[in-house]
Amino acid sequence: MSAAAGKPQVLLQRFVMLSAGWHLFVFTTTGVWGSLYSPPQFAVEVAPTSVDVTLVEEIPSAPRQEPLLVPEPAQPDDLPQAKAPEPPKEVPGPVVSDPMKGAMAEAKPDYLRNPAPVYPREARRRGWEGLVTLKVEVTPEGIPSLVTVEQSSGHVILDETAAKTVRAWQFFPARLGNVPVASSVRVPVRFEFMDSHL
């Protein structure tokens, strides 16, 4: 590329720069620039406030003086008589709820999680059925501590199976107010065949 070919390009750049500078000078000095751009205008409406506060200057007042009263000398009849001291009044103490008072709730087996007894094979083979009533001593933790047969089914194998199963159960402990306590509960266990067995 020759030096002559590059010269017109340099001249063009200078011309554009000078033209831009000249226009900027003219716009800023003549105020044309200000007429071309104006910031947006906003209308602001003044609304009354919900609370008007008026400050009032406090006027200091003179200190108030009480008249000085001088008691008259007491006469013997006017002298106060000594009163017998009153006995102290009873002040009620704080109300304390005894956790051992309140409604007694009986222990209950957790039937949803406790397994049902398995029907003994020999009892099924012989067709034995019956109702066993067990007396269960339940600890405050809900654990059976003692299981005894209160009323037999008439078959020892059914009684023993029922007692063995209930010994593994978990109970909701009895409550006195909101405190779990030891208690005893009767648990009936029925062994009977359903229609499908017959």
Structure explained in plain terms:
It is a single chain. The chain is α+β, with helices and mostly antiparallel strands and 198 residues long. It has a domain at 104-197: TonB (TolA/TonB C-terminal domain), CATH 3.30.2420.10. The protein is built from four helices and eight strands. It has helices at residues 3-30, 32-36, 121-126, 156-167; strands spanning 104-105, 108-109, 130-138, 144-151, 171-172, 174-176, 179-181, 183-191. It has a three-stranded antiparallel β-sheet, with no helix packed on it. Strands 4-3-8 form a three-stranded antiparallel β-sheet, covered by helices on one side. A two-stranded antiparallel ribbon has the order 2-5. It is elongated, with a radius of gyration of 52 Å.
Question: What is the global morphology?
Answer: elongated
The ordered string of helix (H) and strand (E) elements is: HHEEHEEHEEEE
Q: How would you characterize the largest beta sheet?
A: 3 strands, antiparallel
What amount of the residues lies in strands? 15-25%
CATH topology type of the domain at 104-197: TolA/TonB C-terminal domain
Number of helices: 4
Which class of secondary structure composition applies to the elements?
Answer: alpha+beta
Radius of gyration: 52 Å
Strand order of the biggest β-sheet? 1-6-7
Query: What is the average of the pLDDT values?
Result: 74
CATH class of the domain at 104-197: Alpha Beta
The number of E-state strands comes to: 8
Supply the CATH architecture of the domain at 104-197.
2-Layer Sandwich
Query: CATH homologous superfamily of the domain at 104-197?
Result: TonB
Distance between the termini: 115 Å
